[in-house]
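> forwarded from #structure-qc
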């Protein structure tokens, strides 16, 4: 019964989060404030790890992060509840927008509302970036800085697929882990 209660709590949390913010990064910022700061379900570092995993997995970030968080809190039932909770509000909104598309697209108040939302989403994105950057800078290594700089240059100045960046980061992490293992074992 405890798992069902946790799953219900996860559902209501992800549902309200999805109602509050309707983009992947914005949802991550709201989830962090609820699950780390308010409920203390996770540490900030754990939430940043979840964010990293959800970004590197295929699919919508809101769904990926909800799946991870739900699973961590209540197992498979929690993962299911979290994904359903985060998906219902956007589905309902898309049905409404589709139905009233002509009215919505020409309404000046909707355009003003959307402009205001864009500014709010930028603020939430900055919050997520600062949180991830803070986690990286806590480590006493230059390695994360090098990866960040190379990744930024790759994203900003090349037209290559993100697949190559992700593959390169995975290879670099494996090499670093193997090298660190050899250092610890004295080989």
């Amino acid at each position: 019964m405890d798992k069902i209660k946790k799953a219900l709590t996860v559902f209501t949390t992800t549902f309200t989060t999805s109602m509050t913010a309707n983009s992947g990064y914005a949802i991550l910022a709201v989830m962090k404030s609820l699950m780390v700061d308010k409920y203390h379900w996770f540490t900030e570092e754990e939430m940043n790890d979840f964010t990293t995993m959800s970004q590197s997995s295929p699919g919508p970030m809101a769904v990926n992060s909800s799946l991870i968080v739900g699973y961590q809190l209540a197992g498979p039932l929690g993962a299911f509840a979290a994904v359903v909770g985060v998906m219902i509000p956007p589905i309902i909104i898309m049905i409404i927008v589709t139905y009233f598309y002509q009215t919505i697209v020409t309404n000046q108040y909707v355009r003003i509302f959307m402009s205001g939302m864009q500014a709010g989403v930028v603020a939430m994105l900055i919050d997520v970036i600062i949180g991830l950057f803070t986690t990286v800078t806590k480590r006493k290594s230059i390695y994360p800085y090098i990866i960040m700089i190379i990744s930024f240059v790759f994203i900003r100045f090349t037209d290559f697929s993100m697949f190559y960046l992700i593959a390169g980061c995975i290879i670099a992490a494996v090499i670093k882990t193997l090298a660190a293992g050899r250092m610890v074992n004295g080989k």
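QC bot note: Residues 61-99 form the longest helix (39 residues). The two ends are 50 Å apart (CA to CA).
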